[in-house]
Amino acid sequence: QVQLLESGGGLVQPGDSLRLSCTTSSLTFTMYRMGWFRQAPGKERDFVAAISGPGGSTTYADSVKGRFTISRDNGKDTVYLQMNSLRPEDTAVYFCAARLGSSSTEGWAYSYWGQGTQVTVSS
User: 65 CB contacts (<8 Å, ≥6 apart)?
Assistant: First the structure.
């Protein structure tokens, strides 16, 4: 069983930055591709970013490209999402997810999900 726990969300103003963290209990963390998704109230869950198991290979949604950075520290079994230049439309619950195999932008491809952390961007 893989357990994921997100943290780092909060209330910020437009233009501010946040760093989300996702820790996992898996002893084979490096085998998993990791992704970040987000879901606003009443909306579908959308892909944000993904990273390969060893790290270094990343994929971003067009809406966050150039503003968000996904990274991982395999020694700490943790994946991060650095969010800069935040906008009100970034407001959502952010979820981290894990899967074996290649990175994917599709939510159905991920086997494990955290409970989410709230990010609110408002003036």
Answer: none
